[in-house]
Amino acid sequence: MREHEPRPTFEEGKKLFKKAFDKKYCLHPNANKGECRGDIVKAHTIQRNGGLTRIEKGNHVYRFFPNIYKSTKEVVFETKLISIGKASTFTGFCNYHDTKTFDGIENYPFTGELNQIFLLAYRALAREVFMKKNHLETTELLESFDKGLSPAAQREFQVFLKFYSYGVALGVRTVDMQKTVYDKALLNADYSSLKYFVVFIDNCPDFLCSGATILEQDFDGNNFNQLGRSDLNQDMITFSIIPTDEGSAIVFATLDSGQDVSQFFNSLKSLSIDSIPNAITRYTFDFHENVFMSPTWWDSLNDDKKKGLISRAASGTRPDKVKAPKRLIDDGLDYINWNITKIISN
């Protein structure tokens, strides 16, 4: 009987995820045309030099990691130090396409030019494509991981996996459709449809981020009810926090143009200057996992603030549970102290 089989070990779990996420291939739209040159590189979605080096301590930064081996039904998140050489990398571009495609943000100061905003968005989306497809493979490998559980627990596990697999498969469909649109814009150097909201601050950020997420909520507390919907083309927002020569930039961008997108950006624009920094902090930790934190900043937070951010990071880990509404509404906690110098948007 299956319940009498030995439970998968921690090492077996590590091997499973390593098998899924050690893929190496180039995501550039011309990769299949023989343009690729050099090896597949560990591309940084957040710059190492001048990026992660600005917030590191002892060559390390903090990141949240889910500990799925805790004896609880909920995923437990823990902060762990990670080397800046390993932080925010993925093997999704060959050396030639990584160097050529992102030259405008790797070798030039970020000033908010339209092409730079697009490249940040494209890089964030490319990583999301890479991660979503690897997650899909993980769901197939997880099917046997109910060994050693009671029949009731096996059923619960398979129901959970069914929800998870459905969500990931739908996510793959969404990011593939998105990437087709972004690839066309990249090849034609046509960024005229890009919508953006960029906040400049005069100090180094306390955390960095690069990601893309399906539109779920706005800053007024409204839900968009797009998650898990196969009957519509889901809108996505890309998001980046990067250091600049003068301080930092927080960049929201998308090529989608629906009513929900307009509502999301309008809710951003309606925020008062004083409320924007903490609103962005709530958004970052609630909706993105590719986040790297300054050890100096994180260690300075009190327990309530740490627990609040950990709770936000864990809020989207159960595919069978809907994220609580109004997650972006002010929670009364001041996490950061940023001085905004300029905002550009369209």
What does this entry show, briefly?
The protein has helices at residues 10-21, 95-101, 103-106, 114-141, 151-188, 259-269, 276-287, 295-300, 303-314, and strands at residues 40-44, 60-67, 76-83, 89-94, 195-201, 207-214, 236-243, 248-254, 291-293, 340-345. The protein has 346 residues and is of the alpha+beta class. Helix 4 packs antiparallel against helix 5 and helix 7 packs across helix 9 (303-314).
Q: Give the count of helical stretches.
A: 9
Sketch the major β-sheet.
6 strands, antiparallel
Give the end-to-end Cα distance, rounded to a whole number of Å: 61 Å
The helix/strand order is HEEEEHHHHEEEEHHEHHE
Q: Roughly what fraction of the amino acids lie in strands?
A: 15-25%
Helix-and-strand structural type: alpha+beta
Helix content: 25-40%
Anisotropy-based shape: globular
Average predicted local confidence, pLDDT? 89
Low-confidence stretches: none
Strand arrangement in the largest pleated sheet: 9-6-7-8-5-10
Radius of gyration: 20 Å
The total beta strand count reads: 10
Kindly describe this structure:
- The protein has 346 residues and is α+β, with helices and mostly antiparallel strands.
- The protein has a domain of 151 residues.
- Helices cover 38% and strands 19% of the residues.
- It contains 9 helices and 10 strands.
- It has a 6-stranded antiparallel beta sheet with strand order 9-6-7-8-5-10, with helices on both faces. A two-stranded antiparallel sheet has the order 1-4. It has a two-stranded antiparallel sheet with strand order 2-3.
- α4 runs antiparallel to α5.
- The longest helix is centred in the middle third of the chain and has 38 residues.
- The chain is globular.
- It starts with 9 loop residues before the first helix and ends with a strand.
